[in-house]
Structures
1.
Amino acid sequence: PGSVSAAFQEYLQHLGLQDFPCGLGSWNKSCLNARRSPRAEPAGPEEAVPPGEETPEVLLELLRDRHSPWALPPDCSPQDRLLREVAVLAPELLRGSRVFQAVRSLRILDKGVEEVDEGLLRFQQLEELVLSANHISRVTSAHLPRTLKVLELCCNAVGDLQDLCARPPPELQHLGLGYNWLCGPSQEKHLTADFWPNLVSLDLSYNSLTDLLGLASQLSTLQNLHILVLQGNPLALIPTYRGFLVDSLPKLSILDDIRIRPDEKQQFHGLARQPELIRSEARVVVSIGEMKGLPDPKAFQQLEAGSEGPVITYSYCVTYEF
């Protein structure tokens, strides 16, 4: 599917919310008249079930028993299980467009999605949107529900944040943009409190950000930021990288998945006021301790003087990719 909406329709088909033992059918048609609520008390033994129908308890057991052919795989999400059980207890709540009101978390991973379309606006209660490992290069904020608190776009092809920051969800607390194509210094201006006033966690790992000084200046406006991931960017090679960020962002609790200790804050105190220590270049020293799988030149037999045999030479090339 090319869009998030198309991928969601595939997701619904996978869940089978309208198929036995979920939904409405000959197996539970009398429940429609009863308008059973998800919080209703279980049917008692005195309540007769018409021939050919099953009680909600029996239908739920078909979903929950791991040996059942209708059971979800063990690695499915809690929301998958919840939606299927609601489809048994109150199938009318998930019919037609009502299903969009029941979804609070939407995870579409590695489904070839290229477009975040306006169909997402139908999810008026959506709080978490995870679209990792797709082919998304552009995100238009006008297509994102205003209720979002978590937006994860890891492993895509996002190279520009301008469209995302035009009118971003105001309550967003986590923004995940790791393993994308962001290049500095043009993108730092989009990472301020003007766009993300409630951001608590930010993942920018494994992009191509290079301007540590400019990025720290913009991130310092995020008063609620406690978790920051920048590893994998060229700026992380700067020798004073961690210390400079720890001192520049005093409210940070975790940097690159490592908790910031109180003694670190004391050790790096004042480093943010010495930008001259930030160098725009880094030196990497690589040492070879041992190589396996190559013939030892010393083991070759030396040709005797005057021998007419062919002379065989060996040479090897070692390549490093950074």
Note: The mean pLDDT is 85.
2.
Amino acid sequence: RCVEAFYIYFHAGRVEEPYVSITKKRQMPKDGYTEEIEKEVGQAEGKLCTHRSAFSRASVIQAFLGSAPQLTLQLYICVLQQEVTVARSIFMVLSLLSIVYGALRCNILAIKIKYDDYDIRVKPAAYLCIFMWRSFEIATRVTVLVLFGSVLRIWIFLVVLLNFLGFCLYPWIIFWLSKSPFPENIEKELSRLGTTIVLCLLTFLYAGINMFCWSAVQVELSDPDLISKSQNWYQMTVYYIMRLMENAFLLLMWYIYKTDFYLYVCSPVLVVQLLIGYCMGIFFMLVFYQFCHPCKKLFSSSVTEALLSCFKVLYFICQLHKSTRLTGKVAVKSPENSDEARGSSKTIDSQNGSIHHSVSSNA
């Protein structure tokens, strides 16, 4: 692909192309109106776009199935040896940049797939926000997994297995609940077994991405394109709340079971720094979706509205739980209150009887 892409690029424009294709794209709405623009795409340009799309997908696969395990392993070795060599630090920086670049490409691909009908232009501020968001999120996640695995080496396999199986089976569970027919139009030459293998590999990659960060591309097996094109704020909110709770729990277990090996580390400060780092990643994510997203004008609701609605749902659930608890307490105390009321009525009746008797004797 690289050789062919360079060959097409350097020979473009020398020979007149036999035919061109016309694509129609809509601009972002301005003052409530959208314009449709027609563009001629030559054969060479179309092939270059195909190669670029393939390179983007390959960078995502390489980042999360190659660089992410490599970064985790190198950091684990540094923790055990209590030493960070120059060569290992270079490898870790390159691995982290590779993962961040793959996550950035995943975000851009998700935007282009979801809004394929529009002419999308990503500004430098959006790239910067995505880079900061993914850097904080991935770096803190890898560090938390390494710290937990260094003191509880057996339990880390259970944590990784549960995360991986949960995210790998989630698209299949949703597909089974939707009762949609099995997708047959992925590739004409593939048999049913081949299609199943392709879908399993797709969910495998999806689980590998969600192990380390939020997957901007949500797999939906019932969709013809296998990708959900809706912006699900609730799913994203639940993911980040659960991931923050999981990171906090893993750090708490590391803090409880840490050995004398970590005497040179100020543990409370490290825990706070990691939690703040993950929250910084969430902050840059909110800034991106609120101000820098290239298609924010097409959102049915903004990030702030989605967060307010999520908080309202959580508040309603808490209030409902409190009301049920109060109702239970009142139901438990009601027999006691009835006995007290009966006792007080008996004393009032006896006092009235004694008063009536004294009045009659005086008369």
Note: The beta strands are 20-26, 36-42.
3.
Amino acid sequence: FFKNFGVGIYRVNYPQSMLDALIPGIQDHTLSPQDRFGIQTDVYALARSGHINYVDYLRLLRHAYKHEDNLTVWKSILKQLTDLNSIIDYAHIDNIKKYFQTYICDLLSNIYNKLEWDPLPNEGLQAAMLRDIILIQMGINGHNKTREEAHKRFQILLNSNNQNHHSINPNIRAGIYLTVAKTGNQEIFEQLKSLYRKADTQEESIRLLTALCRFDDEMIQRQALEYIWNRNEVRKQDHLKAFVSLASHNRKGCEITWKYMQDNWNKIEDIYGEHDTHLIHFVEHVPSHFVTEERAEEVRKFHIDHPNPLLDRPVKKVLEQINIRRLVLERHEHTIHQFLIT
């Protein structure tokens, strides 16, 4: 009864009895990675569209996917959970965010313990890439052991001289930088900035620039915003990556970047040109994180005030995104909270 991938794009609405029957095959991997990937994406899509409750998805992950070890499956799961996490940023129930972060860390605990920080003997590229995304998620979601280790390795990196600069495996650097930034102070911001200026590869530059935009401290977020538009420091082609990174970090980062966009749109258009597709990415990846009709109205007004045919479809897409996210919060916040605390 599995769909034939690559033949058509459609969703399967599994009855609960069928999902329950599939769980053992997901747990022991007798089902292929392709099927394990497809089942959870279908359930997530159905929850997001309002056909089922998000709790069905979260429960499925908890019961069936705790021993998952496939990179593609985890990338998909973490993309969905990051999406939901960013909606929960706007929740009215105070402690729901903390409970959700605990849920994520618990879900990842087995694969985290299996991979930890350092390469395993004879491991392949997939394991290295998986370690990278698992460490990032554990670090930014408040896992104490990950945070302690990230700070320890960050100090090693800072203290090493240029000859020893590569003592920290590049595959775990994003996890280190994003984790120390998450609850970092002004000193860490300056240290990351110093490393950014000395970065000797484009890959390392982007890792560090992204981390500079991932502080929770609002004062530092405003400094990051100013820094990423400093053309003496940041290359033109990297402004957008950094700006989107700040917008996607949390609610406050999104508000700061959205206000900047509204106040400086003419300047942004001058930098890129009014027919440049970069403008589409600014519109699609900043206000799309909002969840209220008031914010949707601001997006409509922004487009009226800055008419550009290039942006007609992206603005429509963003308005749909905001509406979907608003409905998710209205319909599911209380049931998700109940699930997380029981």
Note: DSSP finds 16 helices and no strands in the chain.
4.
Amino acid sequence: LSGLDPAQPYFQGTPTEVRLDKSDADFVDVIHTDSAPTIPNLGFGMSPAIGHLDFYPNGGVEMPGCEKNPVSQIVDIDGIWEGTRDFVACNHLRSYKYYSDSIIYPDGFLGYSCASYDLFQSGDCFPCPEEGCPNMGHYADKFKDKVKNDFVKLYLNTAEARDFPLWRYKVTVTLSGKKKVKGYVNVALYGSDGNTKQYQITKGTLKPDNTYTAYIDAEINVGEVTKVKFLWNNNWINPTLPKLGAATITVEAGENR
């Protein structure tokens, strides 16, 4: 059974006979996309973990792309009917959109087991453990024989619009150069299955020999990394013409470590 943002009003906190529960099937996976309290936030979905695997994309409360202004939502690209529904219940309805995207991307929507979304964001629960990460949505049941704990909370990020899946990488850059300079460092990944746009790894004071780490959620699974593009800029013309390079760049894919 797959729960697509199961309803909160009249159901949250009720006995298991009343609401969706892991005892309802051999395997119950749940996608939580609108788990803010109903009062005052009008969250339609329930927040507690109730299945064998509970996925909280983007933290499970506010979905990216749902904070668009009402007019642009009502005249949505998918038509006025879809746009109006999104305006009323955008976060709630993301659950089925993620699910339908998950059918097309068997390798997408990896959920990282973590104590909280904040810890996931800061990279604490990266990469996937030895047995791998479950996929949110249609292919969640591939993981059914690997569930060890009572409740498993899984976190991941998605894009603002379809296609929704993102693939998580850890990028570590050690700089080389003569002296420190202000600016930012961007990195793009190239691989056997495609390349990403540029992602900012750090900004502010850039010191040679220092190491900077960022977790990026890329719009594509690049496959085997073949090259990395490094770019730095200080956004203004510096008469001393400072030079910075990358002594090393390490890329770790969340999925296969």
Note: The domain at 167-253 is CATH 2.60.60.20 (Lipoxygenase-1).
